[in-house]
Recover the amino acids of this structure.
């Protein structure tokens, strides 16, 4: 298991861009040490500089870089260069270039523009990776392998990929008859009589396109495993990672996660935008928790911007304090590093105006450099936090294959399906309360530690999921699920008997039909008791018309022909309870509902409650103590009152016994004995 001995602080260093500037390395080393950086990601896009001509290698510049880093006690996260192949390779081996859905083979351009199936490209990648591993296997600077960079959905439609897809289908289904049944190909006369007829170009066959997405994800994973193999063989004790992104790239990271030694990811929230900073902070926290949850242990923040991006439409400079705050947010949610793209701003190319620790001015007197230095100094003081972990009472199911299926589904209302956004909406309620949340996949079976599992819009139920959820609730767990749950199986076939499919007994309901609302339509619900503070709550977009089959009615609709029918139900199942939110509700309802549920279930919160809007409290725990990260994502000061007699400031060791103030975009890290909360 990967366990760093100190917090990593560093950046992507594209030294190969500066080989004609002999003084840059010396200056950069000085600046790295000034900024308290202890690790650099190197070699990410360096193939053309390592192998400028086929079979002719120039490792001298990399040798010098590795040596200088080691001499200055700066580690290297050494990348394999497959994310950007050299032009000579595209010219000599055209089959390695990606083919799009129209059959056009792409020219040499951009990056990740390769066929993941191509035997030639795999051979070339293995060759360069083997040389790197053999050359630097014992180098003192080598701390980790960074395989490729930001793998995406390599949606290549060349004949090699199509044949690999057909072989993948044969392994999955065994026969064409099974494929036809799984995809319901009698619809529109799409029945296949030969494997060669199958091409992933028909969006009307949802099972086909869903399986194509699964195949592409598996094929990219297979490419990664081929890249990783020589590294593991030659350097078995050097950990391996590849940097994940937001989960909208067409890869099932849940499958990928077990094949890296540590999860790393690239986080780029767009601060100070049309979304309030505190709300964006909650959404960003969700993705940090997602990456922590892939392996249920700390992760690495591999990339973030120290200032601005150049690809987000509008990217404003971080206001004073925000960089330190955003970096600490990652740590609070389980990161054991803070790293940036990029170290030194490029002079040319697509990212020459992307932010960097060292700007075009080349000075350490910039505000960005000073705030990066502040992060480095802070991380150096947080050593005791390194061995701590985040422990959650609550899990939210966020299933990427479910998201793919929902995106393809042609429903009575296709506008604003918003699966990810709704998962975020449920998550925000716990973030605001200072309740730690794990983000889990639907086939995650270790539910026993959670008091509450929330499964928004679980449209696609993969095999076994219904059974696991039933076992969880029957053993005493609490489940909350919503409209558009249990609609189709893993092949995207609707369950006979309608939704919620195999969850009918667990939820004690069946859904007759779904009303879909235009934005101007009005619908509200009325609680059947005084459980929540609000009397009426609005409904938008979706409203299931539900019949109870044993479930208790928690709320009813107030308008339209289905007025009086259940809008929220709760069903006792074994020792536990399962709630069904039949409609889409706003934050007002979710805040009240989850606030009530948190008290009823005794969910662990941080030591201050309630928290002011925009302030969150996240807890990392080790054997004898807890670290509470209080983070203020509002630009104004906020006052916090303790719920315990005393706490200790983790940085100053000052004892705190009363209310205190956190500055705008400020923070406080408290420490207390584990048994207090």
């Amino acid at each position: 298991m990967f366990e760093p001995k100190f917090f990593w602080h560093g950046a992507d260093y594209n030294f190969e861009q500066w080989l004609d500037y002999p003084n840059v390395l010396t200056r950069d080393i000085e600046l790295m040490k000034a900024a308290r950086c202890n690790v650099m990601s190197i070699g990410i896009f360096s193939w053309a500089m390592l192998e400028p001509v086929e079979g002719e290698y120039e490792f001298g510049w990399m040798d010098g870089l590795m040596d200088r880093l080691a001499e200055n006690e700066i580690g290297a996260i050494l990348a394999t260069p497959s994310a950007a192949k050299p032009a000579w390779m595209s010219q000599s081996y055209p089959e390695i270039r990606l083919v799009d859905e129209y059959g056009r083979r792409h020219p040499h351009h951009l990056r990740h523009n390769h066929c993941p199936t191509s035997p030639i490209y795999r051979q070339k990648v293995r060759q360069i990776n083997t040389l790197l591993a053999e050359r630097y296997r014992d180098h003192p600077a080598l701390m980790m392998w960074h395989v490729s960079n930001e793998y995406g959905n390599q949606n290549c439609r060349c004949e090699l990929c199509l044949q690999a897809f057909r072989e993948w289908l044969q392994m999955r289904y065994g026969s064409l008859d099974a494929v036809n049944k799984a995809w319901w190909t009698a619809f529109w006369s799409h029945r296949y009589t030969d494997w060669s007829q199958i091409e992933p170009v028909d969006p009307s066959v949802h099972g086909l396109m869903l399986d194509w997405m699964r195949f592409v994800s598996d094929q990219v994973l297979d490419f990664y495993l081929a890249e990783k193999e020589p590294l593991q063989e030659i350097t078995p004790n050097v950990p391996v990672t590849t940097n994940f992104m937001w989960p909208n790239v067409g890869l099932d990271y849940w499958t990928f996660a077990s094949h890296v030694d540590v999860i790393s990811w690239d986080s780029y929230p767009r601060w100070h935008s049309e979304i309030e900073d505190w709300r964006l902070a909650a959404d960003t926290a969700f993705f940090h928790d997602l990456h922590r949850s892939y392996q249920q242990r700390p992760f690495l923040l591999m990339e973030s911007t120290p200032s601005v991006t150049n690809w987000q439409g509008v990217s404003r400079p971080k206001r004073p304090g925000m960089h330190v705050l955003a970096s600490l947010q990652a740590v609070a949610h389980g990161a054991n590093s803070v790293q940036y793209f990029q170290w030194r701003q490029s002079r040319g190319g697509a990212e020459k105006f992307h932010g960097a620790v060292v700007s075009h001015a080349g000075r350490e007197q910039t505000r960005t450099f000073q705030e990066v230095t502040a992060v480095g100094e802070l991380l150096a003081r947080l050593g005791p936090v390194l061995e701590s972990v985040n422990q959650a009472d609550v899990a939210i199911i966020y299933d990427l294959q479910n998201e793919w299926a929902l995106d393809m589904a042609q429903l009575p209302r296709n506008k604003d399906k918003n699966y990810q956004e709704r998962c975020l909406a449920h998550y925000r309620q716990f973030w605001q309360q200072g309740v730690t949340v794990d983000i889990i996949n639907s086939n995650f079976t270790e539910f026993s530690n959670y008091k509450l599992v929330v499964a928004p819009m679980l449209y696609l139920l993969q095999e076994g999921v219904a059974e696991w959820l039933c076992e969880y609730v029957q053993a005493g767990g609490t489940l909350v699920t919503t409209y558009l749950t249990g609609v189709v199986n893993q092949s995207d076939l609707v369950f006979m008997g309608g939704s919620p499919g195999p969850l009918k007994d667990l939820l004690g309901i069946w859904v007759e039909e779904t009303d879909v609302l235009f934005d101007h339509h009005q619908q509200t619900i009325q609680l059947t008791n005084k459980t929540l503070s609000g009397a009426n709550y609005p409904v938008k977009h979706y409203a299931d018309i539900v019949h109870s089959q044993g479930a208790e009615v928690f709320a009813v609709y107030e308008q339209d022909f289905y007025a009086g029918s259940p809008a929220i139900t709760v069903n006792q199942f074994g020792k536990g309870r399962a709630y069904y939110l039949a409609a889409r509700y706003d934050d007002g309802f979710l805040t009240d509902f989850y606030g009530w549920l948190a008290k009823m279930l005794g969910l662990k919160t941080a030591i201050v409650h309630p928290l002011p809007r925009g302030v969150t409290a996240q807890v990392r725990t080790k054997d004898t103590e807890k670290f509470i990260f209080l983070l203020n994502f509002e630009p104004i000061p906020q006052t916090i009152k303790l719920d315990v007699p005393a706490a200790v400031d983790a940085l100053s060791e000052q004892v705190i016994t009363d209310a205190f103030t956190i500055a705008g975009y400020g923070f406080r890290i408290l420490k207390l004995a584990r048994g207090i909360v």
Remarks:
- The two ends are 29 Å apart (CA to CA).
- Residues 246 and 371 are 25 Å apart (CA to CA).
- The chain has four domains: 1-7+263-386, 38-238, 394-601, 615-676.
- Residues 206-234 form the longest helix (29 residues).
